[in-house]
């Protein structure tokens, strides 16, 4: 299996091409599958970063996240107990909104009470169970967890059908005049199991292509 992926890309690509000729055409046009998950070591720190980055440009989010981390010991990861012990005003002064401050503290509390799994637990859990556990945290929605499943855990069968870029890519790849509803994409994606993560990646790539045969 390729670096951090929970599946063999060669096997997945062949299976998808056999299952769906139009997806096969997209894969040929887009070229080699290049997803390389950035392995997660600390679910709390990873989810804290996700909360901070929501609805911000990358540069602005990185600046704010840097300020938040600077509140604590240099060179150390964020720790839930330390976050819970920090005055809201100090987190707000770093640039967090009220909602993100509350979400970060809820994440810290739910990490300490065991709602947020440890990394060892994550690797033993199924996708649906991970979604259920993590969306119990304020500010963490299904999309955020799906991005973690794909880009941090390398899970093989994730289809984030509510993602705007994926929906737009699907419309291009399958020549739809209107942006498809998530339920329509999910229904179509059943034929792509158990390799929907690869299909998702190629649907995102469809937006970068000049044309698809």
Keywords, separated by commas or semicolons:
single chain, 213 residues, mainly alpha, Endonuclease Iii, domain 2, Endonuclease III, domain 1, 2 domains, 13 helices, 0% strand
Question: What can you tell me about this protein's structure?
Answer:
- This protein has about 210 residues and is mainly α.
- It folds into 2 domains: about 10-35 and about 160-210, Endonuclease Iii, domain 2 (Orthogonal Bundle); about 45-150, Endonuclease III, domain 1 (Orthogonal Bundle), CATH 1.10.340.
- The protein is about 60% helix and about 0% strand.
- The chain has 13 helices and no strands.
- The protein has helices at about 10-20, 20-30, 45-55, 60-70, 80-85, 90-95, 100-110, 120-125, 125-135, 140-150, 165-175, 180-190, 195-205.
- Helix 9 (about 125-135) crosses helix 10 (about 140-150).
- The chain is elongated, with a radius of gyration of 19 Å.
- The model has no long low-confidence stretch (mean pLDDT about 95).
